Amino acid sequence: MPQRFVPTALVIWLTVGVVAFADATDRQTHRLALRAGRTISINITVGSVRIEGSARQDASIDIVRTAPTLGGLARVPVTIQESDLEVRIDAAQEEGRADPAFRTDVTLHVPTAAVLKSVRIMEGRLTLTGLGGEVNADVRRGPIEATDVHGIVRLETGIGHVIANRMTLSADGLLRLRTFNGDVRLTLAQRPTDARLLVLALNGTISSDIPLHTKDTWGPRWGEATLGKGEPVISIDVVTGTIDIKVGG
């Protein structure tokens, strides 16, 4: 039987073609001391941020950058600035660009009581787990998901859903969830004894396992409830979307 022959030039062309269309990736890991009072700030343009809290004393930071070419990684420079009071992680695209082909994915492992002074994402996803200190997050385009988080929590997105699961309230805490265009779904681990609920949907609906005094006729919908001492505060508002509050069993 005659042997099949594949031209060498074709083999070389195919190999080069595969390489040409493969993304370039850069990975780096940092470990930092995170004593009490030292905060963390994060700023990325396109990508995801995942923050996990646990019983540890330091912070582990894993950063993965992706670009169409190796030279393109320079368009998403990473800087980590440290002072006695703050750690600042910046991986924003140069010159204010927001090209989805150039992304940065950040994973942080921090102490449960860590203070996330600022988490800013232009376009991407934020995931939070096991935190009990303070979180201030702003995502312009993309969803936020939080699980087992308490303390002072401010989560806001411009376009995207905010999903908060198994949340609990701290005596001196705050839970504020906001989105311009999307839904807010909050599931409390248990019905709070003391709380003040303030809920507003400009264009949407409100449902709640906790009875609310509501105004749900024409115009904006709002609801409120006072439980026990009336604090801490749960504040939820959407411009276009629905609000759903559930109490876990």
Compact description:
The chain has 2 domains: 23-112, no CATH class; 143-249, no CATH class. The protein has 1 helix and 19 strands.
- Straight-line N-to-C gap: 72 Å
**Strand composition percent:** over 45%
Fraction of residues in helix: under 10%
Largest sheet: 19 strands, mixed
Order of helices and strands: HEEEEEEEEEEEEEEEEEEE
Count of structural domains = 2
| Rg computed from alpha carbons, rounded to a whole number of angstroms | 23 Å
What's the mean pLDDT score? Answer: 89
Which class best fits the helix and strand makeup? mainly beta
* Strands, count: 19
Weakly predicted, low-confidence segments: 1-21
**Morphology call:** globular
Topology:
Layout (H helix, E strand, L loop, with lengths): L7 H13 L3 E10 L5 E16 L3 E10 L11 E4 L3 E6 L11 E9 L3 E15 L4 E8 L2 E4 L4 E8 L2 E6 L6 E8 L2 E5 L6 E9 L2 E3 L4 E3 L5 E7 L5 E8 L2 E5 L2
Parallel strand pairs: 2-5, 2-6, 2-7, 7-8, 7-9, 8-10, 9-11, 10-12, 11-13, 12-18, 13-19, 14-18, 15-19
Antiparallel strand pairs: 1-3, 3-6, 4-5, 14-17, 16-17
Describe the structure.
The chain is mainly beta and 249 residues long. It has two domains: 23-112, no CATH class; 143-249, no CATH class. It is built from one helix and 19 strands.
